[in-house]
């Protein structure tokens, strides 16, 4: 019986261990894709082996002593009790202190290294954590749009960056919501921004600004997700970073600077629905959303100016692909039904209204 339990426990342990294996994990700190993530790995590996050494010495000692001095039949008396051994005590005080001091040197060096001021040509992006999606604002002067008195480029869900450039992220918990709206308390939660292949994890705290440096060595897509419990849909607060080659980046910036183009046909009907309050006092999209070049300028929800740009691969906290029309329709039909607790209201849209709004959203390239 005991043997079987032991085998079962070993089997479950092995299964748990194997479940951590994935050949192409997209959120793998051990496969850094940029210099800052590389520095973290360079610290992690030696510290890991030091920890392995300490583990083997300590646990090995415990197991050895437990076996060596275990109770045996016919040995009823308690063995000699030893109190105090000055040499041993000094030894086990000094040895850990030396090991910790050895670990501290590269740790502190890495902390200082990562806390450096960014180079002058770094790209500045303010990252805001909301329930449950990420908002990105490009705050540099050369990232101003041609509309809205030169407002900064804003994007949601996918952070687009150029390869081989330092990105300086300013992380703000959107306490009070973007633009300080009245439902402030809803947003007073801590998130944590983490793209494991590109940079370390950093908390996003209302009322303060944290910074991290990020850089991608190659064009590509890097995934992350909120790493601090922030409410019902914390597990679906995903994010992607799309790194572009230099010329693609320039084209992206040029496009982002442009206002949306008023569409025709069904999409035009959708635009009218979007900009006007819906019938029967159901509400209005423009209460929360902005579309550059229109009267929609509210900052509370994702900026939709370039919703259908190919880099905006996913929406609503990256839970669905933007190209997934069924998912987009379901989202508009009743956001709460597909993402419980979402701040996007259910406006009881008719299927015709949904078709028109989807056509409009897909026209926003
Ligand atoms: Cu945001 Cu967890």
Structure overview:
The chain is built from eight helices and twelve strands. α5 (265-275) packs across α8 and α6 (325-333) crosses α8 (351-363). The protein is α+β, with helices and mostly antiparallel strands. The radius of gyration is 27 Å and the shape is elongated. The chain has helices at 2-19, 35-68, 86-114, 246-257, 265-275, 325-333, 335-338, 351-363, and strands at 123-130, 133-138, 153-156, 158-162, 167-173, 191-193, 202-204, 209-214, 220-225, 238-244, 314-315, 320-321. The chain has a five-stranded mixed beta sheet with strand order 3-2-1-5-8. The chain has a three-stranded mixed beta sheet with strand order 4-10-9. Bound molecules: dinuclear copper ion (CUA). Dinuclear copper ion (CUA) binds next to loops.
What is this entry, summarized?
The mean pLDDT is 91. The chain is elongated and about 95 Å long. It is built from 8 helices and 12 strands.
